[in-house]
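Predict structure. Chain length: 285.
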Amino acid sequence: MGTPAELISPRSPRVAAARRLARRNFRTKERRFIAEGPQAVREAVLHRVGGEPTLVELFATVEAAERYGTVVAAAREAGARIHLAGDDVLAELSQTITPQGIVGVCRFLDSPFDEILAARPRLVAVLAHVRDPGNAGTVLRCADAAGADAVVLTDASVDLYNPKSVRASVGSHFHLPVAVGVPVERAVAGLKAAGVRILAADGAGDHDLDTELDAGTMGGPSAWVFGNEAWGLPEETRALADAVVRVPIHGRAESLNLATAAAVCLYASARAQRASGGCRSVTSS
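Prediction complete.
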């Protein structure tokens, strides 16, 4: 495998630099973030930013380097700096109770919002006031699975590169364009100008998702706007939408959590678009 035999010291400047990426201000300054686990690192190896490899550095325990030898070899081939490290180093970098033994340092990969609009997206998830990083990462994963063309995080939402968000996306950070820091008014205006219908997801919406599907109104380009986990979308954001849509509750549950509601909404649009022949299949490669 050709992996260096010497373990990197926990006091190494490289370890210290990677450790600092747990803090947002350092991530922003360095334009680097941490991707943890073999799936995320595998996807990072395949991804490029502006023609450059996204993965710039890899830390792995001896056991993990052997277990995920193909990932380590691909990372080296892509030009990433490889470090063998002890369990103590990986424990510091991973911030999880049970580290998986492999962590990558990656370049920022968000896309300009104008580029997303220029690509004429058919299905977009807009995270308007999402503050929980785990929820943000899970919605990104749902959007990826549903075949969405892009995700937009507004300036009122959590940091895309928060370690919890990256872990929750399980590699989906590397699969589709994501714009960050876009004011919700600009996001809605830009998407509307691109011919995208704006649907605000809200439990108190005056439109029912089942009714919208039955009426055949969801086959065209659409963007779902998702709000805060606790209080949903503010009135001024709902007012920007073409329709405020609720997911029907047929049983006795009080509500759905954000990620579950997002999955239902995104898959409803994806199904309607595929039925009308206007959206790429989520099952095709």
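Summary: The two ends are 30 Å apart (CA to CA).
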